[in-house]
Amino acid sequence: MEGGILIAKRGARFFGLCALACRRSIALRGLKFSLVVGPILTAINQGDVILSGQLDARVYLKIGVTFLVPYAVSVFSSVAAILSDEAAAPEGSG
Question: What is the 3-state secondary structure (H, E, C) of the chain?
Answer without folding.
Answer: CHHHHHHHHHHHHHHHHHHHHCCHHHHHHHHHHHHHHHHHHHHHHHHHHHHHCCCCHHHHHHHHHHHHHHHHHHHHHHHHHHHHHHHHCCCCCC
